[in-house]
Fold:
Amino acid sequence: MSARILQGSAFRDAIYAELRGEIDALRAAGITPGLAAVLVGENPASKIYVRNKIAACEQLGIFSAPFAPPASTTTDELLSLVAELNRRDDIDGILVQLPLPPQVDSKRVLESVSPEKDVDGFHPVSLGRLVSGRAGLVACTPAGCMEILRRSGIRAEGANAVVLGRSDIVGKPMALLLMHANATVTICHSKTRNLPEIVERADIVVAAMGRPWMVQPEWIGAGATVIDVGTNQITDAAEAERLFARYPERLEAFKKKGSALVGDVHPGAAEVAGALTPVPGGVGLLTIAMLMSNTVKAARLRRGRAAGTPAAAGVARS
Ligand code: NDP
Structure:
């Protein structure tokens, strides 16, 4: 058996096509959705993430406003920047790229973002809405995983779903979304016993641990759906030799580039699973697509109703 590979690009393109229609409707009412992206310091991975997010805005006709305070910035300076962005009418979404430097109180900064502009879905108000099953802005990565399931015709209702990881930004919201979709959800973490046995009973597995290729093919039940959120940058040559011992072409690619990106799920799982997301090219693309979707949604909710756009009426129903 060979798994259906759930390519993120196909889902992303479908979401962008839908968003273009919604953006056109907003623009016709004089509203251009706007996203502020705050990138503190010089973290190379963060720079790439923010660059990709701004490129997505440009592709869709969303206004983007980048801010790049220095690594030495203080909590108070960031709080006043966020306060200013909260006040600006042309900004619908505020993205504060994590991680922030150690001297900054990240929680305080994230909690200062107005919940109506919280397009990352990290604010306690957004999380509270998610817990109680009310409409709101949902964290982008778990929301993207749900889009993959829905658009692939994979039913969560009644399914045994196992979420590996319990972070505030991936594992917990993922488990809540699956529960609201009527799956029976088990949440696993670093203290969970008998992980392989729990995973084996799953119809849907979402792996979000940050552990390169940890989920082994023999853990996966035949025909299960496997969503691999893990994004692990391998830079250590010894680790690459170990991981890629049976994948000479991947080892070669690593040697040329000096790094490799792998998920949490061993690629051999494709022989057992019914469907599997690749890394790279899977969930990561949906994370950005859902950020765009949240920005458009935030614009419709905050400004669209007042303008009486048809798009705003659509939101009121969802
Ligand atoms: P965190 O480090 O915040 O959380 C990891 C979770 O995995 C924790 O709950 C931890 O358990 C659990 N865990 C770690 N090791 C084990 C283990 N050996 N067995 C069982 N559980 C374990 O990570 P994030 O949630 O932020 O991210 C998870 C992964 O997803 C990372 O690879 C990250 O890069 C990736 N990611 C990808 C995104 C994308 O767009 N594709 C977006 C966001 C994240 P405990 O709580 O007990 O410590």
About this structure: Residues 141, 164-167, 169-171, 188-192, 195, 208-211, 229-232, 283-284, 287 surround NDP (CB under 6 Å). The radius of gyration is 20 Å.
